[in-house]
Amino acid sequence: MTSVVRPTAVDSGSPVAPERSPNRSEDIFSHLTDSIDRSERKRPLGPVSNFTVEQLPHCVAEIQRSERPNGAIKAFGRSVNAMIGEADYSGLLLRLPQCDFEIAKTDIQYLVNCTYQMSAFAGLDPSDAELTVGAELSRLASLTCQRQPSVGVLSYEDMILTNPVQSDPRLYCLGAVGVEERDFCAGHQLIESELQSAMDALLDLRDLGGADASRCLTQCVARLESAQDVLTRFEDHMSPELFSQFRAFYGKNPYRNTLGPSGRFSARVVAVSVLLVGEELFRQKPQFYWDLYRLSEYYPQTSIGKVFCWLSPDNRDAWLKPAWLEGKADFPRSATISPVVERGGREIERLHEACVCALDRFTRMHRRAALKHTVEPGRPLVGVEASESIEVVLCQRLLTLPP
């Protein structure tokens, strides 16, 4: 590979009309087309963003087909760094509005992650892999972390939350595999949207004195059930074969001791769990909280920081492990809706129980989907450390509910 010039679309050339991004659960994993409609471009870094969207999947495919993949990935790295060196992307990165910066960060992390993953595919040793990533690309990646602290590798936030999946998705694969990859990200975005609505309803109940408790809890149940409907599409309609092809690019960094993007690192799942069952979760599954603080850098930092403030209302540094985690203080019930529920009477308690059951069903379905598509086929685990049990991690938020 001597150049990064590739076709200017990620589509496969199929005569089937490109598909608009799904915005309903029934739209994902439809398998009706192998091309993507990109009618609304979002390219904050200009040529670098154009390359990430339009050419990166073609480069990946070429490296995979190459008889000398080690030479092909090195040439890819040189070309990317040469492209970055042609303009003041550092200055542009620091000037971008936050919404554009988040997409730019996603572009950069997609390039960095791709270079590491394909270096491992080509068999490069760690020093050659770092040289292939290159000084220019590494510098941009470091700048993104300076402006917005993050784990420094492709994260769940990059892949799901700031990836403009609905209009101009960042992907690694072509054709039907790329559409499946897009739908995987879009499905997670739909789930995150439902979780946000559930969280907003619970926060209204907890924090607004005049909130209608019945309305808030009813809305929470509905949103959690909608999130479960999306998960059903993953379990029943996602193609295991296509999933296995794109998932290879979202694994752990093969050269660093870091985890990959995983639904384990959804701050909204954590927030809803704390609001609904935070104290009982600590009583039954304290390891959940220990892991939350230990792996905090993998979560969206702004969102998980707010949860930590709930959990440490009296501490100036909410990121420190709180005293209650070590049994030196009581769990902060003010982080949860429990005090409001206890004052609300039997009907509110019943609705709260319905919310807890809906969260439990969602968690159990997520566990089944993870077992079906990842654990049972023997695929590598991206969000679990080698010392951890996958079963323990998947069951961390499953409580023993009263009969």
Topology diagram in text:
Elements: H1 47-65, H2 69-85, H3 89-95, H4 98-122, H5 126-133, H6 135-147, H7 156-161, H8 175-207, H9 213-237, H10 240-247, H11 267-284, H12 286-294, H13 301-311, H14 338-343, H15 346-375, H16 390-394
Helix pairs in contact: 1-2, 1-4, 2-4, 2-5, 3-6, 4-5, 4-6, 8-9, 8-10, 8-11, 9-15, 11-12, 11-15
GO molecular function, one term: heme binding
Region (Disordered): 1-29
InterPro entries: Trp/Indoleamine_2_3_dOase-like
Q: Percent of residues in beta strands?
A: under 5%
Number of strands: 0
Computed Rg? 22 Å
- CA-based shape: globular
Low-confidence regions = 1-17
Average of pLDDT: 92
Distance between the termini: 63 Å
Query: So what's the CATH class of the largest domain?
Result: Mainly Alpha
Summing up helix and strand content along with how strands pair, one would put the structural category as mainly alpha
Q: What is the N-to-C order of secondary-structure elements (H for helix, E for strand)? A: HHHHHHHHHHHHHHHH
CATH topology name of the largest domain: Methane Monooxygenase Hydroxylase, Chain G, domain 1
Give helix % range. 55-70%
CATH architecture of the largest domain: Up-down Bundle
Q: Tell me the number of helical segments per DSSP (H or I, 4 or more residues long).
A: 16
What profile does the largest beta sheet have?
none
Tally of domains: 2
Region (Disordered): 1-29
GO molecular function: heme binding; metal ion binding
InterPro entries: Trp/Indoleamine_2_3_dOase-like
